[in-house]
TrEMBL record:
InterPro entries: Intimin-Invasin_domain. This is Intimin. It comes from Escherichia coli. Coiled coil: none annotated. GO terms for cellular component: cell outer membrane.
Length: 132
């Protein structure tokens, strides 16, 4: 034992840091939209923000090219949006994909989310509604 004080100390030098990136801002659209031509449909958004929501930026160019659009509903909340559906195109796909990204007050951005909008003619019945 007298010589053990000069022995090297055995240490566990493996340092493990558990780090989980915090979700500062997330955006989710729980349901796709199915509606008749030229109707207005409310868009349900789920926004979780650490610093408060500033704005949501939409890429709705495919919808706009046919006469539809995504617009703010005019309420006090920054997350209340509605889709104005275009006219039904006979023989066309009538399915439009739009994306959204949220920004908070500190300039952080969320993930991109996609919303599928299906336009039905006034006489068409929805057989199946898919939720992704």
């Amino acid at each position: 034992l007298s010589g053990s004080r000069y022995d090297l100390v055995q240490r566990n030098n493996n340092i493990i840091l558990e780090y989980k990136k915090q979700d500062i801002l997330s955006l989710n659209i729980p349901h796709d939209i199915n509606g008749t031509e030229r109707s207005t449909q409310k868009i349900q958004l789920i926004v979780k923000s650490k610093y408060g929501l500033d704005r949501i930026v939409w890429d709705d160019s495919s919808l706009r090219s046919q006469g539809g659009q995504i617009q703010h509903s005019g309420s006090q909340s920054a997350q209340d949006y509605q889709a104005i559906l275009p006219a039904y195109v006979q023989g066309g796909s009538n399915v439009y994909k739009v994306t959204a990204r949220a920004y908070d007050r500190n300039g952080n951005s969320s993930n991109n989310v996609q919303l599928t909008i299906t336009v039905l003619s006034n006489g068409q019945v929805v057989d199946q509604v898919g939720v992704t």
